[in-house]
Amino acid sequence: MEHALSQFLSDFTYVAMVAVLTAAGLGVPISEDLTLLLGGGLAARGVTNFWPTLGCGYFGVLLGDVLIHHWGLRLGPAAYRHRMVVKHLSLERQERLRMHYARHGFLTVVVGRHTPMLRAPIFFLAGASRVPLWKFLLADALSAAVTVPIVVYLGLKGGEHLDDIRAVLHRVQWGLAAAVALVVALIWLLRRRAKSRTQGPTTP
Fold first, then answer.
1. pTM across the whole model
2. In terms of Cα–Cα distance, which of 156, 155, 137, 133 is closest to 145?
3. From CA 162, how far away is CA 167, in angstroms rounded?
4. Contact 97, 41 (CB under 8 A)
5. Counting beta carbons within 10 angstroms of the beta carbon of residue 123, is it exposed (0 to 12), middle (13 to 18) or buried (19 or more)?
6. For residue range 109-167, what is the model confidence (pLDDT) as tens digits?
């Protein structure tokens, strides 16, 4: 898989990067990190230039994310009636999820950008939950502006150690996602406790 992807990127360079990353954003099982690392490796070998590679990588990442968000937005509430969603989420949990996106849509998108296995479903449900495009794009663009240049640069400088770099990236991404999720959960818990104290004990 890695060899075929590397050959495809070598043959079609910038167009291939945009196409592959867009497909990855839409849920096609292609590693976004590997594509960006290979792009950096191509720049290191002189097949491409670094800055156009970085620009195409960033654009491809955002395009795929926006398209899957738009798909969810087009479907709206009907997305929650899909058999895969119904299979894993009860009606009560679906409603809680919609409320979560309404309150924490920005942070949820930021976390989703760093969770490779869950990124597409999170972004799809963000659209279905009516997270505005401007808010989604702002969260995604700011998050990708940090990670995409780092991954491409790592490919530029360490192209001979892609497997090791990918392993470290996955650990960092899941660690960041867990940390942000923990902060969100803590804020939610503190707000809930503050609300219960404000309401006071109920009288029979």
1. 0.80
2. 137
3. 9
4. no
5. buried
6. 988 888 877 888 889 999 999 999 999 999 999 999 998 999 899 888 876 555 665 56
